[in-house]
Amino acid sequence: MNTNILIVGVGGQGTLLASVLLGNLALENGYDVKLSEVHGMSQRGGSVVTHVKISDDKVGSPLIEEGEADIILAFEKLEAYRWLPYLKEGGTLYVNTQQILPMPVIMGQAEIPVDLERILAERAGNLKAFDAMQIAEESGSSKAVNVVLLGAASRNLPFSTDAWMKVIEGNVKEKFVEMNKFAFIKGQLA
Which of 7, 9, 107, 184 could connect to 50 by a Cys-Cys bridge, CB 3.0–4.6 Å? Predict the structure, then answer.
């Protein structure tokens, strides 16, 4: 398996925890993994992207170039649009349909493209757009969007549900484990 995954969102959405869960899961299953995190004012709602490379062989550079991502997990629509050039032809884009207005839009210095979901559908090889925020809230916390998206993407990854449950147990605070497991399962069904 050679899989390149971009995890994109804004600060505070749990993109980094998602990359830790995915990276640890791959390592525990015998794959070589490289992660690279890029923060842009992440604590103030700025863009955050994590490159995750998983391979049977040794992974060299941790960075994913444009057109090389097999999967993009986008925690909101504008970040999906921003990182779409990185998706390879035929790749899969999982996008939470929530939209968070970035500061340049709020200040009137930039505009959001009209009909953003249509643009994503036209440009992505496979688009799985759904309201991950609603699923997370139904699971017990709006902060579980990250695990909901991982659940949805798990269908395209070679790891068992039991392996996912184990990595959640080992990397999430104990009081949030059951809620995150539930969110993951609901994400698989999305």
Answer: 7
Q: What are phi and psi of 174, to 5 degrees?
A: -50, -40
Which strands make up the sheet holding 69-74, listed edge to edge?
Answer: 32-39, 47-55, 2-10, 69-74, 87-96, 126-130
Res. 39: pLDDT tops 60: no
Considering all CA atoms of the chain, what is the largest pairwise distance in Å, rounded to the nearest integer? 48
Q: Which residues contact 100 (CB under 8 A, 6 or more apart)?
A: 10, 45, 76, 78
E-strand spans in 40-165?
47-55, 69-74, 87-96, 126-130
CATH number of the domain that residue 55 is part of: 3.40.920.10
| Cα distances (Å, whole numbers) of residue 60 to 10, 53, 63, 88 | 27, 9, 9, 19
Q: What is the pLDDT of residue 44?
A: 52
Domain count of the fold of the chain: 1
Phi, psi of 65 (to 5 degrees): -85, 165
Closest CA to 119 of 87, 148, 158: 87
Mean pLDDT score, 54-62: 87
What 8-state DSSP symbol labels residue 45? T
Range of the domain at 109: 2-188
